[in-house]
Specification:
The structure holds 2 protein chains of 2 kinds. Chain A is an alpha+beta fold. Chain A is built from 5 helices and 22 strands. Chain B has helices at about 5-20, 185-195, and strands spanning about 25-30, 35-40, 45-50, 60, 70-75, 80-85, 105-110, 120-135, 140-145, 155-160, 165-175, 175-180. The chains are: A alpha+beta, B alpha+beta.
């Protein structure tokens, strides 16, 4: 006769078995191997920081089969890399229909050795974000769990009790602490990496710092907005210069939304706005102005070599190889 | 099924399991200190524990009911870190060894006396089925779990959702990698030890006495 605890036990083992079929070993660094998730039959999504070389990447599937892979695209900004298998051979992971909820059971899976799948059970402890990442990316949302991040679990999946994918685990984003990129965001990045090989980000060519907006300025805006971005530099030849943004302007809006800080501006500069005309709202001399400019594409941070996850030399290059945004 | 109903069923299933396992768990004492845990392997007083727990000159065993017995070391094997002891008691509640292959992800409960606290339970899942090389160069299967263990858990059982022994908790590596000696190795060790100790355990031939 089965009891509730037995049912739970069987369900957990079943979830590991199911998700384990889409969890692979990724051997692309000098130290111990890491893990990856099948995105399509021939594409593996993993953590960028575990991919130290572009060639001679070895993938081991759930049945022990070894396949070579090449880098299809990488985005160090969000610590994601997409690898292409020599041949279609994997079952793509099934993404959970429900986003992760605090308190739900979660299993962290990894395949850091050829001895089989490994797992750790916990609960979703917190859901946070947005958070600015060290290498210029912005993570809209992240998941934290109390699962144990065993060595080599980076790039592996966090799955729900039904074995569906909740996110991708990595220790490369938060100074070595384990964090999970929600499946929806990871899949969106994977889609762009499959298409372009890198993540397109918009570029304005301005440098700014957060400032308080004086009451008179808020009156002129006809709204309550305590913070804005003071423009302290404009790159020559950049969209910002062409559009007529000037040092001393306070940037307060992008399109129809308010911009209170860097993160808010950054969140608008996605790949979709590149080449499009956008309206930027500024306070100039205490009066509101609207400036239209065409967003450029920020030069991709190339995936050459290996940038330590927290090594200090983070590059944020614009079209001329310098400046931010 | 309503979530609360299912949760209370889960909770009572756990209660029932703990009630069933605890009587089969023992404390193993050294000369001065409590050194670890052990399990009742056979109703006539056979106790299984870790070799490193049984490595003391004078050994005693306390049962769950509080009774204390002197223990005699019958066999030990440092290679697999197992030891078999005998106490002078009978009709003891046995903890059965599982015959089911463990699966990664299945629930695992560790019973023991971490830091000397009696009869503590910690829970997790089987996290990996790996192998380890013994100092004699033999490859043995190893059960790894994410169940938190501490000194005092050594020799205690890792049980499955049915309350069957999946392994004997043997090592704590770096705080979060718990290692257990799987049931198949325990059974192999105990059977070998007993066949050497009890060569006459097969039914003896009865030679009818002839009256001259």
């Amino acid at each position: 006769m089965s009891n509730a605890f037995e049912d739970l036990s069987n369900a957990m083992a079943g979830a590991v078995e199911k998700a384990g079929k889409s969890t692979v070993l990724v051997d692309a660094r000098r130290r111990f191997p890491a893990s990856g998730i099948a995105y399509t039959a021939d594409l593996i999504l993993t953590a960028d920081h575990v991919v130290e070389r572009d060639e001679d990447i070895k993938i081991i599937l759930f049945d022990g089969k070894q396949i070579s892979a090449t880098v299809a695209g990488r985005d160090p900004g969000s610590d994601l890399a997409l690898l292409r298998l020599e041949q279609a051979a994997v079952t793509p992971a099934e993404v959970s229909k429900e986003p992760a909820r605090v308190g739900q059971f979660a299993l962290a899976l990894g395949r850091p050795s050829d001895e089989g799948i490994q797992a750790s059970l916990g609960v979703v402890s917190a859901i946070g974000g947005p958070v600015r990442l060290q290498r210029g990316g912005l993570l809209e949302r992240y998941i934290r769990t109390d699962t144990i991040p065993y060595p080599g679990f980076s790039g592996g999946p966090l799955v729900a009790a039904d074995g569906s994918l909740l996110g991708l685990n990595t220790s490369g984003l938060a100074h070595g602490a384990a964090l999970t990129i929600p499946a929806e965001l990871a899949w969106r990045t994977a889609e762009m990496l499959a298409k372009h090989g890198h993540i397109k980000r918009g570029y304005l060519g301005l440098r700014s710092q957060s400032v308080e907006i004086p009451e008179a300025g808020q009156k002129a805006l006809k709204r309550e907005q305590a913070m804005g971005l003071l423009i302290v530099g404009v790159e020559s030849g950049s969209p910002a210069e062409k559009g007529g943004l000037m040092v001393g302007d306070i940037l307060v809006g992008f399109g129809d939304s308010r911009v209170l800080d860097h993160d808010a501006l950054f969140a608008h500069l996605t790949g979709d706005v590149i080449g499009k005309s956008v309206s930027i709202e500024v306070l100039r001399g205490g009066k509101p102005h609207t400036i239209n400019l065409i967003v450029d594409e920020r030069e991709a941070v190339s995936g050459e070599g290996f940038t330590p996850p927290f090594g200090g030399h983070h590059r944020h290059r614009g079209p001329k190889g310098r400046g931010r945004r | 099924m309503a979530g609360t109903t299912w949760l209370s069923m889960l909770s009572s299933a756990l209660d029932e399991l703990v009630e069933r396992v605890l009587p089969g768990l023992v404390v193993v004492h050294g000369r001065r200190f409590e050194v670890g845990a052990g399990i009742i392997f056979r109703a006539d007083g056979l106790i299984l524990t870790n070799n490193h727990v049984a490595g003391h000159r004078r050994l005693a065993v306390s049962l769950h009911n509080g009774r204390e017995y002197e223990a005699r070391l019958l066999a030990r094997d440092p290679e697999v870190d197992l030891a078999l002891m005998k106490i002078g008691a009978h009709d003891l509640p046995v903890l059965p060894l599982t015959r089911t292959q463990p699966r990664v992800g299945q629930m695992a409960l560790a019973f023991g006396h971490p830091w000397g606290q009696r009869d503590m339970l910690s829970s997790g899942i089987v996290s990996a089925l790996t192998t380890a090389q013994t100092h004699n160069g033999r490859q043995i299967p190893i059960l790894r779990s994410d169940v938190p263990l501490a000194p005092g858990n050594s020799g205690g059982p890792l049980v499955n959702a049915l309350g069957e022994v999946m392994g004997l908790n043997a090592m704590i590596v770096g705080g979060d990698q718990s290692i257990s000696i799987p049931a198949e190795i325990m059974r192999e060790f105990a059977e070998k030890a007993l066949s050497e100790l009890e060569p006459h355990s097969e039914p003896r031939r009865i030679i009818p006495e002839t009256v001259i």
